[in-house]
Write a structure and sequence with these properties.
about 250 residues; alpha/beta; Rossmann fold; Arc Repressor Mutant, subunit A; five-stranded parallel beta sheet; 12 helices; globular; disordered N terminus
């Protein structure tokens, strides 16, 4: 089951993303980190990601050492991380906690062979935005990815049923909205450098088409970044985002 966080424009953005396969792409595409120690899983995920964006770029880690190296090298340019809970070198979900600390603005989805509800809840509490059991269909995975990249949270049906029974709700504390008065440095903890670039051009009043052309990315990618920017600025729409961004010190 897909459970979105209520945010303005999310429904429109989801429709735009769904149509992106029909668009002509220019420049850089979505960049995704896949961390899993099974090559078959990696290749299967790549095939499904191509439905999200035919020009999607992926970086791969098959153990803890590679994961640390990929994050150190690519953190600022990544749009999403898909991470297995068990890989060579990992202990529990410490590697996921470390990833959240190293790249707090990076959306993380956990892929796992486990369907343990307590594990799901623990990961959601540290800021993971989705948990996808590997027994689920590729279509469910793709829907979850689309939702998370548009600013939502994917909660698997098992956890949702348990949560409803116990009154638990996923915490958003791991991704708090930024106070514009703090300036751009505070936002760097919530946004990637590419998203900062998008926000800078947004503050100049440029439309998505010009932002995409200036940064060498597709308009669809701009829309995904805008969803993250709205969330970080705690605003409801583009106009409020422009006003808030112009108040930032150092932008």
């Amino acid at each position: 089951m897909v459970v979105p966080i209520e945010r303005p424009c999310v429904r429109r953005i989801l429709r735009d993303i769904a149509r992106r396969g029909q668009d002509t792409h220019e420049g850089a595409a979505v960049k995704v980190l896949i961390a899993d120690d099974h090559r078959l899983i990696i290749e299967g995920v790549k095939l499904k990601l191509a439905e999200l964006d035919p020009a999607v770029e992926t970086v791969v880690a098959m153990n803890l050492e590679e994961l640390d190296r990929m994050v150190a090298t690519h953190a600022d340019s990544l749009d999403l991380a898909l991470v297995d809970i068990t890989m060579p070198g990992t202990q529990g979900h410490q590697h996921v906690s470390r990833l959240r600390a190293q790249a707090p603005a990076l959306p993380v989805i956990v892929l796992s062979g486990s369907e343990d509800v307590d594990l799901m809840r623990s990961l959601m509490e540290i800021g993971v935005l989705g948990f996808i059991p590997k027994a689920y269909s590729p279509e469910v995975m793709l829907s979850a990815i689309r939702l998370v990249m548009a600013g939502g949270v994917y909660i698997p049906p098992l956890l949702l049923a348990n949560a409803q029974a116990q009154g638990w709700q996923p915490s958003e504390a791991a991704a708090p909205a930024a106070d514009p008065a703090r300036g751009i440095d505070g936002l760097r903890k919530l946004l990637t450098e590419r998203q900062i670039d998008v926000m800078r051009l947004l503050s100049q009043g440029k439309p998505n088409k010009l932002i995409a052309r200036d940064l060498g990315i597709s308009e669809g990618t701009v829309k995904i970044h805008l969803a993250a920017i709205f969330r970080a600025l705690n605003v409801r729409n583009r106009v409020e985002a422009v006003v808030a961004s112009r108040k930032l010190q150092g932008l």
